[in-house]
Design brief:
Elements lengths: L11 H11 L6 E8 L4 H9 L10 E6 L14 H8 L5 H4 L15 H6 L7 E5 L3 H5 L1 H5 L5 E4 L4 H14 L4 E6 L1 H9 L3 H27 L4 E7 L17 H4 E6 L5 H4 L9 H4 L4 E2 L3 H8 L23 E8 L4 E7 L8 E5 L2 E6 L5 E4 L8 E8 L2 E8 L3
Parallel strand pairs: 1-5, 1-6, 2-8, 3-4, 3-5
Antiparallel strand pairs: 2-7, 6-7, 9-10, 10-13, 11-12, 11-14, 14-15
Helix pairs in contact: 8-10, 9-10
The structure holds zinc ion (ZN).
The site of zinc ion has 5 residues, from helix 9.
């Protein structure tokens, strides 16, 4: 798995950890991603405090952000199409190209479904959605067989619930994605009010049924190890919560809840991000971190040379954080900058569109690429630290 180790006694404990990982059996590792459309983090916290969301309150819940970085190529509307596409790819709209809610838009990034399905012949995935457009965005994966079971429930959350319970009872899947729509509908119809909190309570009861079905499954499948995450696709516009789509703090604020302990990318936000907009929201983890977290849990090893995920796993080792790639058009160079919060015992490696271009000391936090290839329109940079790659897509214009 790692070929860059030099024999040094200091590295032995780490070597043992990595070699045991390399031989670990991941066949019993499973993931369930429960999507709750348009649920505002602060309103969920209120519901938990009021005893209206006891099941969701059992998850390790943290703030995240949606909508990419405003003003940069990753910026995307805080709408469901782009949001779910990011959650299911680990990429922003500059890669997945789902820039709105049009059901004709097709995801252009490598999806979680595809990465999981193609990692091993016995791996299978499911997508059960209330908002049918999600399965339209991923129609190519469905047609290719990378989503083995794709269910459209046409806005009926009860259909989503019953199909999910049935799948957990008798299915044999490695990744189950579930989309529940009611919070978003309540938000559009009513705005933030008692009715919105009631929708959160209803959803909490549905999540409780899903978790009970999972507990029942574990009685007959005791070796399975499930990562369960609850997420939302976007926040809502203050103060009334009826609308969303723009770049405001309320609309960009999302959350993730895990049934497992997370790493510092999630638990310890950067308190002084270089981009301090939206009250420092960019110091938090993002929607793009969900897909790589699931891949890490399933033991699907990234190939750094061909990596194209903007996010970072929220479990396991931590790579470079706050990675930014900026093109200087006059000098024709690209500056990569990042933060390190976990020391690296290995060199940091930089890949540019499939090629290793630099190996830096484990404490480096900047790299300037003076040697940009001619006549390219875009470049993909990947920075690998602690075995964890993180990528950025850069549009190149002269
Ligand atoms: Zn909506």
């Amino acid at each position: 798995m790692n070929t860059t180790f030099k024999s040094s006694h200091a590295l032995w404990p780490l070597l043992v950890v990595f070699s045991s990982l390399a031989h670990a059996d991941f066949s019993q590792q499973k993931a369930l991603l429960i999507g709750l459309d348009g649920m505002q983090f602060e309103k969920l916290q209120d519901a938990i405090a009021d005893g209206q969301a006891t099941e969701l309150g059992k998850f390790h819940l943290y703030k995240t952000y949606a909508g990419g970085i405003a003003g940069q190529s990753s910026e995307q509307p805080t709408l469901s199409g782009p949001g779910w596409s990011t959650l299911l790819t680990g990429a922003w709209a500059d890669r997945h190209a789902v820039t709105g809610n049009d059901s004709n838009l097709r995801n252009q990034a490598v999806s979680l479904f595809k990465r999981i399905s193609q990692s091993a012949p016995m791996r299978h995935t499911v997508s059960i959605v209330s908002w049918d457009t999600i399965n339209d965005h991923f129609a190519d994966d469905i047609a290719a067989g990378d989503v083995e079971m794709a269910v459209k429930c046409a806005g009926d959350d009860q259909c989503v619930l019953s199909r999910t319970l049935e799948t957990l009872r008798s299915g044999s899947y490695d990744f189950i994605f579930v989309d529940i729509d009611q919070p978003d509908r309540a938000g559009h119809d009513l705005g933030f009010c008692t009715g919105y909190q009631d929708a959160i309570q209803t959803v909490d009861a549905q999540v409780q049924q899903i978790m009970a079905a999972l507990d029942a499954r574990l009685v007959t499948h005791p070796d399975e190890n499930w990562l369960v995450m609850v997420v939302t696709d976007h926040g809502r516009k203050s103060p009334d919560g009826r609308d969303h789509g723009g770049q405001t703090l309320g609309e960009k604020t999302t959350f993730v809840g895990l049934n497992k302990l997370a790493n510092e990318q999630l638990t310890t936000p950067i308190t002084d991000p270089d981009n301090a907009d939206f009250d420092g929201l960019y110091g938090y983890a993002s929607q793009a971190d969900i897909a790589p977290t699931i891949l890490a849990h399933l033991g699907i090893e990234p190939d750094p040379a061909h990596y194209s995920i903007d996010g970072m796993p929220l479990i396991g080792p931590v790579g470079v954080r706050q990675l930014a790639a900026n093109l200087d058009t006059s000098a024709y160079l690209i500056t990569l900058r990042w933060r390190i919060t976990t020391p690296s015992l290995q060199p940091i490696r930089i890949y540019r569109s499939g090629r290793l271009i630099a190996t830096l000391s484990g404490s480096a936090c900047e790299y300037i690429d003076h040697d940009l290839p001619k006549r390219v329109t875009a470049l993909n940079y990947t920075v690998v630290m602690n075995g964890v790659p993180v990528s950025r897509w850069v549009k190149v214009t002269r």
